[in-house]
Every structure is written in C-alpha cells, then in structure tokens.
Amino acid sequence: MKNIHIFPNIDELSAFFAQKLAELSHSVSEGKQVSVALSGGSTPKAIFQYISQYAVDSIHWNNICLFWGDERCVPPNHEESNYKMTLDSLLVNIPLESSNIFRIKGENDPIAEAERYSTLVSGLLPKHKDNPVFDMVLLGLGEDGHTASIFPPDITLFESESLFAATNNPYTGQKRITATGRVINNAQNVFFLVTGSSKAEMVARIIKKQEGYKKLPASKVMPKSKNLFWLLDEGAAGLL
C-alpha cells in the first residue's frame, strides 16, 4: 500500500525513519541480515546525521548490511560521492563492521562496475522468482522526476533485465551507476524521502497522477510488495 506521511520538519521525518530502521533491524533473528540500499542527496544526509546524533543505540547494527541504490562515477573520497557522504554523516558514527558495507565503486569503469555490483547483489540477497529482494530501498526525488540515477531520458531502465546499469546525468554529463526497476520494484519496502517546497510540484504530479506523470521515472516506482512509503516535510507536501 502507499503510505504518505507528512512531517513539520526534517527532524521529525528523520525520527520516524530511524524508528522504521530500528524495527526492521530487530525483526530478524541473530545471524540473519537486513539489506538496505541507500540514497544520496541532502535529505538522506540530514537523516543520517540525525541517526548519528540521536538513534545509534536503538538500531541493531550487527543485523544490517548497507548497499547503495546509485552512485556517481567518482572516487570514494570525492565530494560528490554518495559513499563519502554516507561515510562522513553516518558510517564513522555507528558500530557497523566494514564487512557489512558494500559500496558501488564509482572509480571503476561504469559498465564493468554495474555488472560487478549486479553479481554481488544477486549473490548476497535472497531471491523471489530470480529477483534479488532488498528489505529496504531509499529513494530521493529530483525536480525533473528522476529517482535513483534514472533520469527521464532513461526511463526504460525500469523495464531493464539488468539489476544495475551505467547511465549519466543528462544535464551535466556525469556518469552514474544506478539500480534499475528490477531492483527497486522487487524490494520489500521502498521509501521516498523528499523535503523542500521545490519538490512540491513533482510530488503532487506523481501522487495525484496528474498530466504527464507517466513520463516521470519516479512514477514507475511500484513495488510488488505494495509497501511504498512517502516521507515528506510540509514543504514537499505543499500541493497535495
């Protein structure tokens, strides 16, 4: 089902998400893993900072494995790296073993790395009908309707047989690696994390199914589990 949650500020949104992650981390027996595919962007960064400050002890980190839903094709110490953002805002503050962290290697050849990461994910995650199943996938939403690193010109990646694919930002030309629809829509739980009034028009267009919404990649996020959560601040929800 589609769950829409609206919060007055980023801290309350972050607290809600931290609780969901904590519940998930405690829901599995010892020795089993919860797989989480992370997102880049300013909203996840704020959430990670909140968890680092207020929620570290509530989460059973030994049960969590972290992956990424997309990455910029830059080295891991580059300021635009999603991995570096997560490292600085979360990983340095939590008791998570490095063996539970699986980054996309943005410094590698994009096509080869997409294939390597697809093989890695396929080998580590449980499957349903030959599709790997993440327990949780985090997604952002761009002002153009993109999500992960699937931009409007590459919307067909939602129909791809691949798990991860090489793509690029059509506005800057920056190369990216992204999860495809096969990964996103087979996840057990998918969370859109969206803040700011600049996203309000796109949020409304997708949720209300307004004119042209089918051309927007984020409209193609339809997990088979039906567990789609929209976590919005009041700015992002302003036109609902």
Brief descriptors of the model:
240 residues, globular, 6 helices, Rossmann fold, 27% helix, single chain, three-stranded antiparallel β-sheet, six-stranded parallel β-sheet, alpha/beta
Set out the fold topology.
Elements lengths: L1 E6 L2 H16 L8 E5 L3 H14 L8 E5 L1 E3 L9 H8 L20 H15 L2 E2 L2 E2 L3 E4 L24 E5 L6 E5 L1 H4 L5 E5 L5 H8 L20 E6 L7
Parallel strand pairs: 1-11, 2-3, 2-7, 7-10, 10-11
Antiparallel strand pairs: 4-9, 5-6, 8-9
Protein described:
- The structure is a single chain.
- This protein has one domain: 3-Layer(aba) Sandwich (Rossmann fold).
- It contains six helices and eleven strands.
- It has helices spanning 10-25, 42-55, 82-89, 110-124, 181-184, 200-207, and strands at 2-7, 34-38, 64-68, 70-72, 127-128, 131-132, 136-139, 164-168, 175-179, 190-194, 228-233.
- The longest helix has 16 residues, at 10-25.
- The chain starts with a strand and ends in a 7-residue tail after the last strand.
CATH architecture label name: 3-Layer(aba) Sandwich
How much is the radius of gyration in Å? 17 Å
Question: How would you state the average pLDDT, rounded?
Answer: 97
Category from helices, strands and their pairing: alpha/beta
Would you report the number of β strands? 11
CATH class: Alpha Beta
Largest sheet, in brief, is:
6 strands, parallel
If you consult CATH, what is the topology?
Answer: Rossmann fold
Beta percentage is 15-25%
**Helical coverage, percent range:** 25-40%
Q: What coarse outline follows from CA principal-axis ratios?
A: globular
The strand order across the widest sheet is 1-11-10-7-2-3
Order of helices and strands: EHEHEEHHEEEEEHEHE
* Number of separate domains: 1
